[in-house]
Structures are given as C-alpha cells and as structure tokens.
Design brief:
Length: 159
C-alpha cells in the first residue's frame, strides 16, 4: 500500500471516529447535567420516628467531613468533568475508560452503602442515581468498544 493510500485510509478512520464521537456526545451533555443535579437530592430516606435526617451529598460531606461521602463526591465530580469533555467530543478511549470506572464506582458505592451497618432505604433519587450510573457505564463501554473496533478495523486494513 502506498503512502497516499495510507493517508486516505487514516483520514477516513479519523472522520469515522469524529462522527461516532459526535453521535455519542449528544448523550453525554444531558448525562453530565443529571449527574450533577442528582447530588442536590437526598439518596436515603429518613425514618419517620428517627432523629437522623439524611441530606443530599453536599450536606453529608459538610456535616460528616472526610470519609466515604467526600470520596464519592470527588469521584462524581471527576466523572462529571470527564462527561463534559466527552460532550464536546474531546475525549479518547482512555478518557472513556476513566468515565466507565468513575460511574461504576459511584453506582456500586451507592448500592453497597458503605459506612452503614443497616443501610437506610433509598429515595427515588437514590435509585435513579444508581440506575443512571450503570447506564452511563454501559453507554461509555459501548462507545469505547465502538472506537476500539474502528481502530482494529483500520489496523487490519478493513477501513
């Protein structure tokens, strides 16, 4: 294969990657806004007769200080920042894997409720955040596999 043919194939691969990033980017902007907005609602229901009142993630971090909540907030903010970059179409496969790890960590942390011996019941927002975290992980995994397949096809000469 000559150099001009390789350049044409590389340009075709680049245009396909740009096109697929643009398609997936349509989902990442709303996901970023949902992830941030869900932090302002409580994830756990307070018992009616109990003096313990659960707040949103920001209130829990301020009230309890360093701990699981602070770690969850930092991971969540990093994931939201990476989602914002993905919404602009400026993220590579490694960035998508970072979003995958972050959203899976947020979802599994909420699902396991660390720090509680007997975890309280979830609010609707808590359940929605768990589902949204794993849906985000699935979408990002699909996007990363899509980009990987495009690059693999290019390496094998199929593009």
């Amino acid at each position: 294969m000559t150099l001009p043919e390789q350049m044409i194939r590389a340009e075709l691969l680049n245009s396909r990657i740009t096109r697929s990033n643009a398609i997936y980017a349509r989902f990442y902007g709303p996901l970023c806004l949902l992830v941030i907005s869900l932090t302002f609602f409580p994830y756990y229901e307070s018992e009616p007769d109990s003096s313990i009142i659960y707040g949103n993630l920001w209130e829990e971090v301020v009230r309890l200080g360093p701990g699981y909540d602070l770690m969850a907030l930092l991971v969540l903010l990093l994931t939201a920042l990476l989602l914002a970059f993905a919404a602009m179409g400026k993220l590579s496969t490694s960035g998508l894997i970072a979003i995958l790890v972050g959203s899976t960590a947020v979802g599994s942390t909420l699902l396991q409720s660390p720090g509680y011996v007997d975890p309280p019941a979830y609010t609707d927002f808590g359940v929605f955040d768990i589902v949204l975290s794993f849906l985000t992980a699935g979408l990002v995994l699909g996007h990363a596999v899509h980009l990987f397949v495009l690059e693999l096809a290019f390496q094998r000469g199929g593009v």
